[in-house]
UniProtKB/TrEMBL annotation:
Catalytic activity annotation: [(1->4)-alpha-D-glucosyl](n) + phosphate = [(1->4)-alpha-D-glucosyl](n-1) + alpha-D-glucose 1-phosphate
Family statement: Belongs to the glycogen phosphorylase family.
Known role: Phosphorylase is an important allosteric enzyme in carbohydrate metabolism. Enzymes from different sources differ in their regulatory mechanisms and in their natural substrates. However, all known phosphorylases share catalytic and structural properties.
Organism this protein belongs to: Nesterenkonia aethiopica
Keywords per UniProt: Carbohydrate metabolism, Glycosyltransferase, Pyridoxal phosphate, Transferase
Protein name: Alpha-1,4 glucan phosphorylase
Alphabetical list of NCBIfam families matching this protein: P_ylase
Length: 776
């Protein structure tokens, strides 16, 4: 680093560590690419608008099996390794589960020596930093690049021109697109190191640069300096921030441009790498699979067809067939607002050639399937439907949990499932045990290794060998100590970072995830108020002390959940300062939940809140991380909860609430919310307290809208599930009062989490979707 060790600051050490670890990975990195090229291996290209990799350095050290030696080397230098890595920014290049899943899958692909590239955008600013002011969420820019990105390599030699706008015309029987502008996509590569370091893949993130000619020199010379740079500014804006709000036309234009920019650069790169070793484009499916992570990269089909037809002279039908063989699509949501649709006019303006291809694909579906395709429309009511487009351009479409996939087949794409039965399949999500156990919970990881030996890191099913130990009081005690250690670590961190005191002896009851009405943080906080009221009514009873921990951000424009954030903080302010209940109930909501915070919270949790309205959470992955770290789940029959419960056993899972089918039926009943509230005295008491301004005395009517909504609408069925949730929470208390019983349940959860490893999920993708054989 050009600094004398005695004068080096923590940042210098961190940069030095990043370069050292990258260098340690470089031989494998080059070897993996060389073997893929020379042996003609098929490789996976995972296109995602979001990646949430978390801090990179400690993970890299673990996967290179160097963590202990790195730490010892720092000791020799008189530097604390933990301090060095604690300063590393956590790149927030995603919103939540979707981006974190992409990161887990990349890590598993590298561990399984599955040749792969992750492709995404290198947002200069990631998801906003969350602060609270008067309990309200305030968003600030997230500057993750201020001290560089030392673990990655910029590749100035790898850049592609991405065309936008202009016109298409039919000349000499062919189609010519004369784009108005071209932006440059510049590559930045981060090594993705498999466990053991034997295989290293690449996460390639694109940043947008203007082509050199974008500065309007005439305007500049005339003194219009800002006007001259207009197009240039537009170019740079493209990779400036993650997901701008899409409620304005400008926002929509920017978002669609980002999606096209990511897909075009990535697909060009895929073709470029193919053509380095091969000539016959008809063999593309033997060498490349492209996975679309949600509909965001759904332009991959039209873009691949465009490149094959317009630049390589392939016929349209052949190109379309090739695209289908190469592409796969993962659906991550049933929420209508998240299934993208783009106005035809906008598409024509930005991507006229793609629109033409989509129209032709639509005609093709009808020509092939005749009247069976009457319900299939890629374009409808002036909108291009990206979900439909992704399905018809893919050979496989998958949901992310058994229940979700069933709903995708039955409710979302029934008309498409009927056309090509078998195209839709399920691959339940998974998480990497390297980050979510080895890195996040070293004490538990060590206990597991002492008990069953090493090897579980890459064969998580081996955790089953822990099960007989669930009867051994010595083991249970040791297991309890690991939870205690994690709680103390969390307490220190909360104190140092946020000045928050954590009573470590209490039951830690945690709900961390994005804020959304369907995730029902509201149900959780309403129950917390009810608990407070009941403690006050009967202070002498034997209450299990609880700390309710919340974490998560709300989309800046989602006012309904911003109210819920404020309510949680308002309730916290009142309850936490109540001397009568303080020792038995506390609310903690540290701001700016991210991967790093998850690594601290999850190992310390006793209870994992997975309480979405059934049928609405596609899978969840937090649910898996908690159970792997020995937290018990209180949850509905939703997403992967269903499979987690099957694995760990109904007796080791606190189930409550309406099922997905019951949810649909209940919504049909007029006045269901009012009826549910009238039947529940505890819920009435809670709503009354909130409506009277108990938690907002300076503005008593602050939550009247929220309370009204619960009485009169309650789409997410908070009221309907309230009493069942309460009964289930009482069971939680009962079980917790018997520490040995609780520990046994927790150990059983850990022992049965093997099938939620992302290695299992990735193997499934390799076999059923990508057609990539396992490494020898
Ligand atoms: O909401 C789902 C979440 O349930 C799932 O675990 C995650 C990964 O599959 O994807 C989320 N979906 C999105 O973020 C947007 O579709």
């Amino acid at each position: 680093m050009g600094v004398e060790p005695s004068r080096a600051q923590l940042l210098d050490w961190r940069l030095a560590l990043a370069h050292t670890l990258r260098e340690q990975a470089t031989d494998s990195w080059l070897d993996s690419a060389r073997r893929t090229r020379e042996d003609g291996l098929k490789s996976v290209n995972y296109l995602s608008m979001e990646f949430l990799p978390g801090r990179l350095l400690e993970d890299a050290a673990i996967n290179l099996r160097l963590r202990d030696s790195v730490s010892a080397s720092f000791d020799d230098l008189g530097v604390n390794f933990a301090d060095v890595v604690a300063g590393e920014p956590d790149p927030a290049l995603g919103n939540g589960g979707l981006g974190r899943l992409a990161a887990c899958y990349l890590e598993s692909m590298a561990t399984l020596a599955c040749p792969a590239h992750g492709y995404g955008l290198r947002y200069e600013r990631g998801l906003f930093r969350q602060h609270f002011e008067d309990g309200r969420q305030v968003e600030r820019p997230d500057e993750w690049l201020t001290s560089g990105d030392p673990f990655s390599l910029s590749r100035p030699a790898t850049a592609y021109a991405v065309p936008f706008g202009g016109e298409v015309s039919d000349d000499d029987g062919g189609t010519a697109w004369r784009p108005e502008t071209r932006l440059v996509a510049a590559a930045h590569d981060t090594p993705v190191i498999g466990y053991g370091g034997g295989w290293v893949n690449t996460l390639r993130l694109w940043s947008a640069l203007p082509a050199a000619d974008l500065l309007d020199l005439d305007r500049f010379s005339a003194g219009d300096f800002f006007g001259a740079a207009e197009t240039e500014t537009w170019a740079r804006t493209l990779s400036r921030v993650l997901y701008p709000t899409d409620t304005t036309d400008l926002g929509r234009r920017l978002r669609l441009s980002q999606e096209h920019f990511l897909t075009s650069a990535s697909v060009q790169d895929v073709l470029h790498r193919f053509l380095e070793t091969q000539q016959d484009l008809r063999r593309l499916p033997e060498h490349a699979a492209i996975q679309m992570n949600d509909t965001h990269p759904a332009l991959a089909g039209p873009e691949l067809i465009r490149l094959l037809v317009d630049e390589h002279g392939v016929g349209f039908d052949t190109a379309a067939d090739l695209a289908v063989q190469v592409l796969g699509y993962t659906n991550h949501t049933l929420l209508p607002e998240a299934l993208e649709m783009w106005p035809v006019d906008l598409m024509r303006h930005l991507l006229p050639r793609h629109l033409q291809i989509i129209e032709r694909l639509d005609q093709r579906v009808h020509a092939v399937h005749g009247s069976a395709a009457d319900d299939v429309h890629l374009i409808e009511h002036g909108q291009v439907k990206m979900g439909e487009l992704a399905v018809v351009t893919s050979h496989r479409v998958n949901g992310v949990s058994a229940l979700h996939t069933d709903l995708v087949r039955r409710n979302l794409f029934p008309h498409l499932e009927a056309l090509t039965p078998g195209r839709i399949l399920n691959v339940t999500n998974g998480i990497t045990p390297r980050r979510w156990l080895a890195l996040a919970n070293p004490a538990l990881a060590d206990l597991v290794t002492e008990t069953i030996g090493p090897g579980w890191e890459t064969d998580l099913d081996r955790l089953r060998e822990l099960e007989p130990h669930a009867e051994d009081p010595n083991f249970l005690e040791a297991f309890g100590r690991t939870k205690h250690l994690a709680k103390h670590r969390l307490a220190t961190w909360l104190d140092e970072e946020h000045g928050i005191e954590l009573p470590v002896e209490a039951l830690l009851d945690v709900q961390v995830k994005r804020l959304h009405e369907y995730k029902r943080q509201l149900l959780n906080i309403l129950w917390t108020v009810s608990r407070w009221q009941r403690i006050k009514a009967d202070p002498g009873a034997d209450w299990v002390p609880r700390v309710k921990i919340f974490g998560g951000k709300a989309a800046p424009s989602y006012t309904a959940v911003k109210d819920i954030i404020r309510l949680i903080n308002d309730v916290g302010a009142v309850i936490n300062s109540d001397p009568e209940t303080r020792e038995r109930l506390r609310i903690i909501y540290p701001p700016n939940y991210n991967v790093t915070m998850a690594e601290k919270l999850i190992p310390a949790a006793d209870l994992s809140e997975q309480i979405s309205t059934a049928g609405m959470e596609a899978s969840g992955t937090g649910n898996m991380k908690f159970a792997l770290n020995g937290a018990l789940t209180i949850g509905t029959l939703d997403g992967a909860n269903v499979e987690i419960r099957e694995e760990v056993g109904a007796e080791n899972f606190f189930l409550f609430g309406l099922t997905a089918d019951e949810v649909l039926a209940r919504r049909e009943q007029p006045g269901h919310a009012r009826a549910a509230i009238e039947q529940s005295q505890p819920l009435q008491d809670v709503l009354q307290a909130i409506a009277e301004g108990t938690f907002s005395p300076e503005e008593p009517a602050r939550y009247s809208g929220l309370v009204d909504h619960l009485w009169n609408s309650d789409w997410f069925l908070v009221a309907s599930d309230f009493d069942a949730y309460n009964s289930s929470q009482e069971l939680v208390d009962m079980s917790y009062r018997d520490p040995l019983r609780w520990q046994r349940m927790a150990v059983t959860n850990v022992a049965r989490m093997g099938s939620f490893s992302s290695d299992r999920a990735v193997r499934h993708y390799m076999r059923e979707i990508w057609n990539v054989p396992p490494a020898q």
